[in-house]
Amino acid sequence: MKFSLIAVTASSSVVAASYAGIVVQHKALAVVGTPTVGSGGSALVTVNNPYLTRDGRVGFTGTYQDGRSVMGFVWFDGEIVWKNSDALPIVLTNPEVTMGVGDGGEWIYSPSQDGVDSVWVNGASLFKETDPAPDLPGNFITFCSRPQMNADGTPTWVSGISAVQGGGASFRALYKGLPGGGATKILAGGDIVNGEFIAVATSVGFPYDFSTDGSNYITRVLLSSSAATNDALVANYEIVAREGVTSFGGELIQNLGEMKTNNGATFVYSGDTNGVAATDGFLIRNDTALVREGDVIDGYTLTGNASAVGLNDLEQIGAIWGTTVGKILFVMTPTNGGYDTQVLMATGDAVDVNDDGITDGTIVDFNASTATSPGLDLPRQCRVCANVDVQFESGIFEAIVCATLPAGPGLADLTGDGFVNGADLAIVLGGWGGVGVADITCDGVVDGADLGIVLGGWTG
Fold it and tell me: Is the pLDDT assigned to residue 20 strictly greater than 80?
């Protein structure tokens, strides 16, 4: 495989230095050490990475101090919607960092259930350790991890698999939930892609992503080959990138990072090459390198590898990346055959906790890591959020902080079919007075303003 390498030009706002020196303030949705709606006035102990619906409503897991114990929870759209204690007499503990939310308010998370690993969807246990493994007769689940969710509420996750009930994992499988319950295997150790076996043991990796409509997926796998070439990305049952084989600009990929895909089967991923260390980090879209370590974005010089990447159905691409003076979150919006690249959040930015316009703290670090869970979930519209450390007068605390997402091209095309017509109008009318993807203006309600945008962009 040989990929191309392009330069992102100054016309795309790179090397523009437009961000430096501007006072930027962001809204904090939740802060460790303070209560949130639904915590009964108790302070949050942990907040995990945020996951967003297509219209920018936020969900995450975390814990708060509940008397002498620590209570796990699921938070969505402004409040705690589920506590571990809601499952009693079943005992739930230790919510995993990764979770997912659907456009209809659905959610998935992974707690320990009576001492065994599990995934729960909308307040009900879906699968747990020791259950028979779906689509793998004679095998059993050994763990459930990295739960996520498509826009329609379809759950996805990775499970360990063993031929012995209660035994250790022999390999992993990527699963997608089915309507009414159950699941189907998407990919597992021992499967064949492009004529090569996916290895057992770690086999299917934890990093994976499904498009919002569930039609496309991308995941990291280990192939049964030499250690120099066995790490690969598989998208829709095809190997699309591979260490030691995939090349661009005369360099070979040597490490793969995080990856995302969308409804159009576009995929993006991060990693580094065997090139010069100062410039080997990359962000690739399909077969084209868009950004490299050493590039300058709005005055910030990128260093190392991206710690998170994002992609939405409007072809906007995002990343959280270290620089010579701290970390940044930037988004690339397609325009005129190129990209308008903007830094949306950076170390040193101001944070407003009370939404009163007064600065309460300053971002000192971003907590995204390719080793733990997806750190950047890029919605279709409205806002983008991150788990960050904020310096307050009383100390440094984790927080969920959000910034406004620039409008992507084709916002009025709600179906994504390339036209603005009756199908898009039907979505607006069907969602009238509520929330959802038809809230194009991001004011919290589908109304005449959103209808006006659809009619104004009408193509027939």
Answer: no
